[in-house]
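Page 47, continued from p. 46.
Same chain as before, 277 aa.
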Amino acid sequence: MKKLVLVIMAFAVTISAFAGGKKESGSSVDAITKAGTVRIGVFTDKSPFGYVDASGEYQGYDVFFARRIALDLLGSEAAVQFVPVEAASRVEYLLSNKVDIILANFTVTPERAEAVDFALPYMKVALGIVSPDSAPVTDISQLAGKTLIVDKGTTAEIYFTKNHPEITLLAFDQNTEALNALKDGRGDALAHDNTFLFAWAIQNPGFTVAINSIGSLDTIAPAVQKGNKSLLDWLNKEIKTGLGTTFFHDDYNATLLPVYGDKVDPESVVVENGVVN
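Result:
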């Protein structure tokens, strides 16, 4: 009997330790504060939103926001640990607790909202199509029977798979791979977020975003692990009141304006305080 009691006690201690460890490994505000670091998933090849510059430093619109989160949450911009992600891996990185927050130009969709929790939006976006100046695609009907390049796991892939089965999709894991395929002529056009394509076309003469907007206007927002209420509530409060009323315009001016110039209206991109106008 004494041996049985000891076994039961040991089992109880093991279960307790496991439960405690599981709770501690979560990305709640308390866990992040205790760790002293917030892990934020960002792109490394989606300039000017998330990319690594020639000096090896993370830069971009999302990165600017990520550093402010670290400052307000942990007292230092240096407290952010950037984690490189691809479009198709964003949900998986949250589900497997590899990151605390995703800030990788993550468009809010009903399907994604079933897997992760989205905070308030900080940006507006729609789909666009970029194509060579020598053979501009000005209407989706021109792509019937042709090849459209997309990134795996993006709203572009989802939209065209669902709505245009007559178009052949060529999908890549990385933005760089997809854009190189367009340059090499392996596809007739490329579909992506219009905000990204505007910048890319400006930086790459010979290509034009001849279709500026497809489908509905969407929003981009931070995402956290499903059910992580403490971090979700913190982010919502940060976006709604903690950042002030001009933070994302300041972010735009620092990261997007040097690329866009006067070719893009900031109000078509920026969302302040989580309110979409």
